[in-house]
Amino acid sequence: SLVVLFGATAGAYGAKLGSDERELILLVWQVVDLHSKKVGTLHKSLVKADNLDLSDQCREVSGLTPEGLGKAEPLDRVLQQFSQLVSSDLKVLGRSSYTLCSDGQLLIRQVLHPETSKKNFLLSDCFYSFYDLRKEFHTCYPSSAAVKDQTIKTMAEYLGLGTDETEEDFGVWQVKTMVAIIFTMLSESCNHIFTEPETVKYKYETGPCSLLLFLFFFLCSSKSETVDSETVIRARGLPWQSSDQDIARFFKGLNIAKGGVALCLNAQGRRNGEALVRFVDSEQRDLALERHKHHMGSRYIEVYKATGEEFLKIAGGTSNEVAQFLSKENQVIIRMRGLPFTATQEDVLGFLGPECPVTGGKEGLLFVKYPDGRPTGDAFVLFSCEEYAQNALKKHKEILGKRYIELFRSTAAEVQQVLNRYMSTPLIPTLPTPIIPVIPPPYTIATGSIRDCIRLRGLPYTAGIDDILEFMGDATGDIKPHGVHMVLNQQGRPSGDAFIQMKSADKAFMVAQKCHKKMMKDRYVEVFQCSGEEMNFVLMGGTLNRSGLSPPPCKLPCLSPPAYAAFQTAAVIPAEAALYQPQALLPTTRTPQASAAAPPAVTYYPAQAAQLYMNYTAYYPSPPVSPTTVGAAATATHTPILPQPGALVRMQGLPYNTGMKEILSFFQGYQYAPDDYNGLIQLSDQARSVLQAPKEWVCL
Question: Where is the RRM domain (predicted)?
Fold first, then answer.
């Protein structure tokens, strides 16, 4: 038997059903006996939504009102009534089992499953298997329109069935027409058989199988063969504490491939609020894209297309040790962080205790190490069931030795990323020989509190300089030379942000008012007025939001240089982008005495290992450009100024609360550095006053 099911929400209708997160307000169904070709009673049930504000389209199409819905039952009770009435109708027809049949995928996958998941109640088993009438119709009549273009009305017209929407209530004529279409398909001329229903996965399957399969193809196939890019999406704006199960719940109703959730990590090995998700086919991926800006808790999640290559970079790996560790099926993975460097397997097992036994004992532990074998303080642990994992998570921030240990849920993809990240760390913690001279550009980025800049947020990732200039329109002429700065993420790709320097604060204000939420391609772009100081902070890794300005790590009040100050750079950046970096990232040298004859400085960046030394900068500006001149560079000859070997030292492993006094005390008794090198490091006024005091030693 089939149960023909139709539904509607308080928002969009038709092809956009469920895309706006609006709640279900109507269910109509009827039982159909495929053998005797008899039908049960047609039932129509209104559903009381939490938000009774109906869209104009809903009011017009359905004829429903908030007053009428206010008297209805909530969804959980309606679904209970649905099960009871279907069972009763089946008994009358002499049947016991049934499968749902709906007009397309949207009602089941995009409405019922997401809504019940958010409201924390379970759907009965019948909602995990259903027939898509559009697909069945196209199978029976191959010459009909494509599945995505089918509707109840077009299918009825193809068969010559009359449909008069005015004679029946909304929902009733749809179900009656669907039943008539099914009976026509069952006729002797077609003799259609319903054999392969659509399925919805009960839960997300964790595990490395899909990852290892990807890796196998990646290593063994030619370069032209990649993971199907039509099945991968990128989710942005995720809460940092969200796990793969949380992401799977956000996409409830859609079938994610086994091990298909890959959480992305930042340069410090922490989750950055993004994830790549691989679905079983392109149809599921397209449905996932319709959940763009749906909510996870109080946060909206952005969903974009991604490529199989991007998924491989995050989820793939080459370690046999990792492959062996992840080879066990259906395991829950927990990440431990902050372990003492002297911790052994026995110490970890003792810390976890008998209430949360590790799968395979010592074989269920994976310590993360540097290439030279030194421990990093991280480890991954396998548990055979959710109960043991929950017991382990209760030990979050308990003490092992003299350190508290952090425990988090993890995924197979995160194991790969963390291992790959640490294994790519250089064995020698010194900067390699600089080989690329970079000429500082002849332009500067304005600073100060004058709000003569604008920030563009939400740019399409494919947007280029020409798109921005076209977006600006007539205001392009008011941009300063070299005043467009595209902000890149840590992978060197567009982040969706850009800064533009205008000729005055009035011009910036007018552009912000005129262009705010103006469309660029298929997205609206937010435009805000800001100052040069705020722009510099964001370009150097800070954040600018409603809560105010959060400075980048290099601007925090401490004496220590951010990274390798001997090379006059606040952050090491990709070599291919180094020629165009703005002055904000290339601090000028300071010398004890200004001299007109002093040779200009040249900044150096390492070529091969550049990415390995990015220690704090979260965003990098792309080559600044202007509407008239792009990529201008100085042509004068420059002479590098580099310190003598051994003149500077780098300190690693400092406690986070270390101050200037503790560092100076650590070096007490050592001779101070010559004044010639003071200018090689950009110092705050506080630091300079300390260093200029009479001492026998000094720390730069």
Answer: 231-308, 332-412
3-class DSSP state of 485? strand
Q: Determine the Cα–Cα distance for residues 600 and 152; give it in Å rounded to an integer.
A: 75
Residue 648 contacts residue 566 (beta carbons within 8 Å): yes
Which pLDDT band, with edges at 50, 70 and 90, does 635 fall under? very low
Q: Which domains, and CATH codes, for the chain? A: 2-199 (3.30.420.10), 210-214+225-315 (3.30.70.330), 320-423 (3.30.70.330), 453-540 (3.30.70.330)
Q: Which residues of 621-650 are buried (b: 16+ CB within 10 A; e: fewer)?
A: bbbbbbbeeeebeeeeeeeebebeeeebee
Task: Write out the two tokens for 73.
Answer: 């039952």
* The two three-digit tokens of residue 349, written as one number: 């097992």
Q: Check: CB of residue 531 under 8 Å from CB of residue 453.
A: yes
Q: 698: helix, coil or strand?
A: coil
Distance CA 9, CA 244 (A): 29
Q: Is 560 helix (H, G, I), strand (E, B) or coil?
A: coil
The pTM of this model reads: 0.56
Instruction: Label the pairing between strands 398-400 and 403-409.
Output: antiparallel
User: Which residue in this structure is represented by tokens 């196209």?
Assistant: 138
Task: State both tokens at 576.
Answer: 């291919």
Cβ atoms of 156 and 180 within 8 Å: the answer is yes
Q: What letter does residue 199 receive in the DSSP assignment?
A: E
Q: What is the mean pLDDT of residues 633-642?
A: 41
Q: Which residues contact 310 (CB under 8 A, 6 or more apart)?
A: 232, 234, 276
Q: Residue 530, Cα to own-chain centre: how many angstroms?
A: 27
Q: How far is CA 325 from CA 330, 421, 424, in A?
A: 12, 17, 20
User: Which of 89, 118, 106 lies closest to 200 in space, CA to CA?
Assistant: 106
Residue 614: which residues within 8 A CB-CB, separation 6 or more? Answer: 267, 490, 571, 572, 573
Residue 223 structure tokens: 């370069």
Is the alpha carbon torsion for 114, 120, 121, 122 positive or negative?
positive
Distance of CA 531 to the CA centre of its chain: 29
In angstroms, the CA 451 to CA 642 distance is 37
Question: Residues 664, 654: contact at Cβ < 8 Å?
Answer: no
Nearest to 208 by CA among 307, 392, 331, 314: 331
Looking at residue 47, what DSSP letter applies? B
**What is the torsional sign of CA 502, 503, 509, 515?**
negative
Name the E strands within 489-601.
Answer: 494-502, 518-520, 523-530, 543-545, 548-550
Alpha-carbon span 457 to 453, nearest angstrom: 13
Is the CA virtual torsion 457, 462, 463, 464 positive or negative?
positive
C-alpha–C-alpha distance, residues 623 and 580, integer Å: 5
Q: Residue 495, SS3?
A: strand
- DSSP code at position 205: -
Backbone angles phi, psi at 181, to 5 degrees: -65, -40
Q: Is 536:447 a contact under the CB 8 Å cutoff?
A: yes
Q: What tokens were used for 508?
A: 């910036």
Instruction: Report the Cα 394 to chain-centroid distance in Å.
Output: 27
- pLDDT of the residue at 600: 40
Residue 435 clears pLDDT 70, i.e. is over it: no
Q: Span 238-262, mean pLDDT?
A: 90
Query: What one-character DSSP code corresponds to residue 430?
Result: S
Name the E strands within 375-451: 375-383, 398-400, 403-409, 436-438
- The answer to whether the beta carbons of residues 204 and 278 sit under 8 Å apart is no
- Give yes or no for a contact between 613 and 431, defined as CB atoms under 8 angstroms apart: yes
Question: How far, CA to CA in Å, does 578 sit from each of 216, 333, 589, 614?
Answer: 36, 40, 18, 13
- Most confident stretch, 2-6, 49-53, 92-96, 207-211: 2-6
